[in-house]
Amino acid sequence: MAFGSVVAALTALVLLILIRFLYILRWSGKPLHGKSRRTYSTLIVLGSGGHTAEMLNLLSVLQKDRFTPRFYIAAATDNMSLQKARVMEDSLIDV
Q: What pLDDT, on the 0 to 100 scale, is given for residue 12?
């Protein structure tokens, strides 16, 4: 009797794993949702010590039309970061 229960449990487990595997194969690579035109307001915090360069590199790979408007924050004394942000924004307009 106990052997039959173990076999039934293992069969159910294998069946569940197989169903899950087939489900993953069916839906992998397909987008979860259709093309959304939703935009996202984006806050970009700039700073010293290489942080500005990291943020601008990250922004260069984002979809510009999806992540808009973009708001920049920098220290009042950090003119270099603000200048780099302006240059980047100007280059986005030209593209």
A: 96
